[in-house]
Amino acid sequence: MLTDFFLHLKASKLPVSTKEFLTLLEALQQGVIGPSIDDFYVLARACLVKDEAHYDKFDRAFGVFFKGVTAIPGLEAEIPEDWLRRVTQTHLSPADRAKLEKLGWDKLMDEFRKRLEEQKEHHSGGSKWIGTGGSSPFGAHGYHPEGIRVGPESAGNRTAVKVWDQRQYRNLDDSVALGTRNIKVALRRLRRFAREGAVEELDLDGTISATARNAGWLDLKMRPERHNSVKVLMFFDVGGSMDDHIKVCEELFSAVRGEFKHLEYFYFHNCVYESVWRDNARRYATKQALLDVLHTYGPDYKLIIVGDATMSPYELVAPGGSVEHFNEEPGASWLRRLLDAYPGACWINPTHEPSWPYRQSISLIRQIMADRMYPLTIDGLERAMRQLSRKQ
Amino acid sequence: MSTRFEGTDQYVATSDLMLAVNAAIRLQRPLLIKGEPGTGKTMLAEEVASALGLPLFQWHIKSTTKAQQGLYEYDAVSRLRDSQLGDDKVKDIGNYIVQGVLWKAFAHDAPSVVLIDEIDKADIEFPNDLLRELDRMEFHVYETQQTVKAKHRPILFITSNNEKELPDAFLRRCFFHYIKFPDKETMEKIVGVHFPDIRENLLRAALEVFFELRDVPGLKKKPTTSELLDWLRLLAAEEIPAEHLRAPGGKPVVPPLAGALLKNEQDIALFERLVAMAKGNR
Ligand SMILES: Nc1ncnc2c1ncn2[C@@H]1O[C@H](COP(=O)(O)OP(=O)(O)O)[C@@H](O)[C@H]1O
Ligand SMILES: [Mg+2]
User: In A371, B13, B41, B192, which residue has its Cα 20 to 30 A from B35's Cα atom?
Assistant: First the structure.
């Protein structure tokens, strides 16, 4: 049944591994917890879930599973050997299997059997099993004819509503496959190492030659450590249609901030016009003329524009097309001006790539960008970074 | 020596945190602790060490920290200098091998606790670079051709503030626990640990303001337990009456000494605006 639980977590799209499952078995075998379903919940979570963003998913899966168990009749016919064998045969690699053996297979089996017996006794005594001290992690699985009832309706346990049913971690959930870490790894393709900044490393070759020149008297030479010296200039679209992509853009932003030492970023709405702003919360106070930006940051900066490029084509090609203010020059001219200033440039688009051909504004911008538009996926980012790191 | 952690009178540990700690100790796996700043991650390792009567070896990670530094460093510069001065020490390279935190813990004659604090500060590959050493609790010193092996596997705590920065291979080896920001009840206990004699009504009122403040949408930096404790210390020292934390009728005010809670100018401005709006609505 524990295996079923494990498979159930997998089916619920939790990224659990066999290695972690074995840790859980080992912990149970070592008696880390007593016979309480609450403790089993905490232990299983600590072993199997390594990201609080998945806590909520785990809670739901846990609730469903241990509720589901009571509903399946005939489970008591299943004997432990059966399903333990099944684990070893179907899910474990030979190495894992060996590890489990080492754990003391027989002891594990004995423990299961003992728990099984205990449960039967409890039941024939007619006592309400869960109310009298909780369930065994082994037994929680239907050997008891009535199984275990968890969930809001189960009374008499430590808390009226089970922790996992409270969904405390709901707002930590995220289903974005793209994590900051993955993004960072993709961004690493854009690196140019240089030594600048504080001196903090011994320059061995320099020291040797200086010392030699110094008639053998030591002349230490220090130098700065290597840093990624690539310079990045970013523009983020915060237009209304970008709201669907806030989360992933935040992740991108935080990764970019972590990865690039020389980073300048600005915000715009739908399309870049004559001005952009630095702090989205204080948009008017931090407004800057785009021309100033162009003059401040040299052509060695890599230009990255992040936006869904989704707008009325008017906004792009007509003066006065902006939804917000009267722009004297069309957005397309400003975009071209940017591209003239920065030979290394790309556009990152968080919308689904296959849908791009159906959007007129996207097609227009792709044309202006000379096809350098990439989706905000790991693959897209890698392509974008590879393109940017080419000699322009 | 007891090897079960039951909390201490300095530290409020929830039962699930204790369970995770004890599971990690028992199975000799690292325990990775995450949570907002100020949720007691660093303090946990200190308290576990003191509760179990074990020495604590702390390694505070900075952005420039390298995995190797936790093992050892070869101080080539000193050796070069000594050779210039004709010091005899120079013949033995071992004199210039400087032990890192992990080496010290491995070499310790009794069990110990090791804290790798704020691992997410380091370079993204840092945890991967330590996988083998932490798994096997041994490493090799190339300069002296010696293998350092832990006499006793230390109890290892690793803390992190950040989201999803750690590699899977590393995560799979750890137990993991996320310290949820304390609810009101737990927070009362935490405050009780620090200020056993605080006025009951002041504490109530202060906690109410504190949790409301944390709920203000759009704050750049929500006040944490540390800020609450600082604020309470000031409130008590200045003998501020509980009633001053609210306007008559229960409307919000900018509470006295709010600078201890909100340290960011923008946040203070935001909060003042909200209070002004709430007043205006009357
Ligand atoms: N559970 C707790 N029990 C007692 N004090 C706590 C607890 N959690 C936090 N604190 C207080 O908050 C301060 C900050 O805790 P710290 O361990 O530095 O947090 P973190 O490492 O998570 O940022 C501690 O010094 C302590 O005063
Ligand atoms: Mg800390």
Answer: B192
